[in-house]
Amino acid sequence: MSIGPDAAAGVRHVFVRGLTVQAHLGVHPHEKTQSQRVVIGIDLAVRDPHAPSGVGPDELSRVVDYGAVAETARRIACAGHVRLAETLAERIATALLDDVRVLRVRVQIEKPDVLTDVMSVGVVVERTRF
């Protein structure tokens, strides 16, 4: 199953792009004591019981709230020092899988200020409930 929407499979795509936080992330000594800009991107494949042809009730309770997704990622990223971007991405991904409606999650962690001649470095991880 892909992350993108798939009406036939009853899946919608929920995303958060460019969530920017100040976090303690990295293996170098200065990264333990100084926060740095970290940009997080999240893609979720979410069960859509009203696909392929229906329209569900216009109620927040029936969907995965992208505000709550962003808050979960923000809380985890700012909770304390993490050595590896991979670990941070995995923590966010597994936390988002706690919602049984989430079938698959992809988390991208970018460190845009690490290398002066590079726009950004980072990692993408994917986790699934299957």
UniProtKB/TrEMBL annotation:
<comment type="pathway">
    <text>Cofactor biosynthesis; tetrahydrofolate biosynthesis; 2-amino-4-hydroxy-6-hydroxymethyl-7,8-dihydropteridine diphosphate from 7,8-dihydroneopterin triphosphate: step 3/4.</text>
</comment>
<protein>
    <recommendedName>
        <fullName>dihydroneopterin aldolase</fullName>
        <ecNumber>4.1.2.25</ecNumber>
    </recommendedName>
</protein>
<feature type="domain" description="Dihydroneopterin aldolase/epimerase">
    <location>
        <begin position="14"/>
        <end position="127"/>
    </location>
</feature>
<comment type="similarity">
    <text>Belongs to the DHNA family.</text>
</comment>
<dbReference type="InterPro" id="IPR006157">
    <property type="entry name" value="FolB_dom"/>
</dbReference>
<keyword id="KW-0289">Folate biosynthesis</keyword>
<dbReference type="Pfam" id="PF02152">
    <property type="entry name" value="FolB"/>
</dbReference>
<keyword id="KW-0456">Lyase</keyword>
<dbReference type="InterPro" id="IPR043133">
    <property type="entry name" value="GTP-CH-I_C/QueF"/>
</dbReference>
<dbReference type="InterPro" id="IPR006156">
    <property type="entry name" value="Dihydroneopterin_aldolase"/>
</dbReference>
